TrEMBL record, chain A:
InterPro entries: PDH/Transketolase (IPR051157), THDP-binding (IPR029061), Transketo_C/PFOR_II (IPR009014), Transketolase-like_Pyr-bd (IPR005475), Transketolase_C (IPR033248). The keyword Zinc-finger does not apply. Gene3D superfamilies: 3.40.50.920, 3.40.50.970. It comes from the Bacteria. It comes from Iocasia fonsfrigidae. This is Transketolase family protein. Its cofactor is thiamine diphosphate. Belongs to the transketolase family. Pfam families: Transket_pyr, Transketolase_C. Keywords: Thiamine pyrophosphate.
Automatic annotation (TrEMBL), chain B:
Keywords: Thiamine pyrophosphate. It holds the Pfam family Transketolase_N. Its cofactor is thiamine diphosphate. Belongs to the transketolase family. It comes from Iocasia fonsfrigidae. PANTHER family: TRANSKETOLASE N-TERMINAL SECTION-RELATED. This is Transketolase. Residues 14-250 form the Transketolase N-terminal domain.
Length: 312, 275
């Protein structure tokens, strides 16, 4: 069982690369512990910049650093970074195409019992609406490591969302091709396509096993990059499978489901179903309790898939 | 009077520690830090009606450092806003006692949790009182780490612009935030002068001295037409020796042994008061 959270993987990778490249900086807002970046601060103290509890300031400062040749990674709470700082992200990062990586930690329902102020369930919607922003949700530790290395070569503003806890592995090893903007096909199938992103991919993969027992062959796409979207893979799925089911840890508005629907409807309309958090302040509870409650579980995904396939 | 409030503070500390222990979640140090301020306000200073939580003339209270909510919930339960038993549901599945103030809970005015929101809301409430020619006061408790949020200073500017002498800000100046000392993370000093230069009447007190707090609360506004800020010097984790002044206790949860030790300490403080 994997015990390392994705945010910790980002830190470990940045420590490795940061020792070789002193321009790599991590910015924190009283969040280095929560972001698992404390180790980066201990090993590379001069490359960690603390701004205090000030999410607008942190983005502005990162923008300034980047335009002076630095490679800043902001590591702060997804809920606040995505919403509190959104104008700085739009104007200071996206508008000027500034090379800043914005890492939203403890995203989605990671802070389940702490309430709506701490849930990050609108972050994808907001980030996707901003031109020039790239939006990535890694699924497991192998993917996170590959992503972090790619990010160091990838120029421009990127929003990355990771959760708080360790997540089960999806990949067996780091032995797979990873490209920002290119979906990963995890299982082949032509009865339906299940598209998931981030830390919900695991439930999608597990649901495909349950479906197989029922004789339903599901194609599972891991849409780690929501923007730029791998439209080709989506259109191909629409053409080759009868219907599409999406799964995400985000509001039903403006996340994965919305953007897939938008692509499908304009290119090759097929029936769809979206599993996401409904339009309400999410109730309190531990993340996995809430996954269960809101239907982001292998069981429920399989159930919805069966219903969807019946309709098609 | 002071003695009974001191006893109340101990009772609330005991109750919040048990609540956090049961939930296996919470902001222990942050909550212990603000107990005496909240106890003074709720048991002696503010006017409100438990049976009529939206009574128009009530004084308004906002816990802007929403993570320090446990003391707040424990006080509301003790006052009878909701059954004490409900504290057992703190942070549990489907609870309304979520880990930050939630206005589904009677007695909570506004939802907080994202830092830096309380003061601007308080400015709005105080402004409404002026517009409606009502006499209520607005109290807002902020953290010192929270002061790094720009919105605090936007609120500070507006409050003095609108001469809101019915607005009282209290800063829980425990000098610690999550990562460590405020002066290392984002320095605030000279802090008093900053607030003064924004047009506020600034008063510094010992935030655990209930007599001193009472005196100050009961004599504000000291200056007509000026909002008041009370810099309350406090100790994070106050009341439990091994939690005091330790950043690690910001959101650490005591284990069974630690809980017992803490409760024992509180009992002996109680005993001292009885003598
Ligand atoms: C906008 C925002 N950013 C970050 C956080 C995460 N956070 C919760 S408590 C805290 C530290 C608060 O320190 P301080 O204001 O000094 O309060 P204390 O607990 O020390 O009384 C932080 C950074 C938050 N709740 N809101």
């Amino acid at each position: 069982m994997n015990k390392i959270a994705n945010k910790q993987i980002i830190c470990d990778t940045l420590i490795k690369r940061g020792k070789e490249n002193r321009d790599i900086l991590v910015l924190t807002s009283d969040s280095r512990g929560s972001a698992s970046m404390a180790k980066f601060g201990e090993q590379l103290p001069e490359q960690l910049i603390e701004v205090g509890i000030a999410e607008q300031n942190i983005v502005g400062i990162a923008a300034g650093l980047a335009s002076s040749g630095k490679l800043p990674f902001i590591a702060s709470y997804a809920a606040f970074l995505s919403m509190r700082s959104i104008e700085q992200i739009k104007v200071d990062l996206a508008y000027s195409n500034t090379n800043v990586k914005v890492v939203g930690i403890s995203g989605g329902l990671s802070y389940g019992p702490l309430g709506m102020s701490h849930h990050a369930l609108q972050d994808i919607a907001v980030m996707m609406a901003i031109p020039n922003m790239t939006v990535i949700l890694p699924a497991d530790r192998y993917e996170t490591e590959k992503m972090t290395d790619e990010l160091l070569k990838y120029c421009g503003p990127v929003y990355i969302r990771v959760g708080r806890n360790s997540v089960p592995d999806i990949h067996q090893s780091a032995n797979f091709d990873y490209e920002i903007g290119k979906a990963l096909t995890l299982t082949e199938g032509d009865d339906l396509t299940i598209i998931a992103t981030g830390e919900t991919v695991k439930s999608a993969v597990d649901s495909s096993k349950l479906l197989k027992e029922k004789g339903i062959k599901a194609r599972v796409l891991n849409m780690h990059t929501l923007k730029p979207l791998d439209e080709k893979a989506v259109i191909k799925a629409a053409q080759e499978t009868a219907c599409i089911l999406t799964v995400e840890e985000h509001s039903i508005y403006g996340g994965l489901g919305s953007v897939i629907a938008q692509t499908v409807i304009q290119n090759y309309p097929v029936p769809m179903k979206m599993i996401a958090i409904p339009d309400e302040p999410a109730i309190a509870g531990q993340q996995l309790e809430l996954f269960e409650y809101y239907g982001i579980s292998a069981d429920n995904i399989a159930r919805e898939a069966v219903n969807l396939v019946k309709r098609c | 009077m002071e003695n009974s409030l001191l006893l109340k503070s101990i009772e609330i500390r005991r109750s919040l520690l048990k609540t956090i222990y049961n939930a296996n979640m919470g902001h222990t140090g942050s909550s212990l830090s603000n107990v005496d301020i909240l106890v003074t306000l709720f048991y002696q200073v503010m006017s409100y009606k438990v049976k009529d939580p939206t009574w128009e003339e009530r004084d308004r209270f906002i816990l802007s450092k929403g993570h320090g909510v446990e003391s707040y919930y424990c006080i509301l339960a003790d006052l009878g806003y909701f059954p004490e038993k409900e504290l057992d549901t703190f942070c549990q599945f489907k609870t309304r006692l979520i880990g930050h103030p939630n206005n589904k809970v009677p007695g909570v005015e506004v939802n907080t949790g994202a830092l830096g929101h309380g003061l601007p809301i308080a400015v709005g409430m105080a402004l409404a009182a002026k517009l409606d020619k009502k006499g209520y006061r607005v109290f807002v408790v902020m953290g010192d780490g929270e002061q790094a949020e720009g919105s605090i200073w936007e609120g500070a500017m507006a409050a003095s612009h609108y001469k809101l002498d019915n607005l009282i800000g209290i800063i829980d100046r425990n000098r610690l935030q999550i990562t460590g000392n405020t002066e290392d993370i984002m320095s605030l000093e000279p802090f008093k002068e900053k607030w003064q230069s924004f047009g506020w009447k600034v008063i510094e007190v010992n935030g655990h001295d209930i007599d001193e707090l009472l005196k100050v609360f009961n004599s504000t506004p000291k200056k007509k037409d000026k909002p008041t800020i009370i810099i309350a010097n406090t100790i994070k984790g106050k009341g439990v020796s091994f939690m005091e002044n330790k950043a690690a206790w910001h959101h650490k949860v005591p284990d069974k042994k630690q809980l017992e030790k803490a409760l024992l300490e509180l009992s002996s403080q109680e005993g001292d008061l009885g003598e």
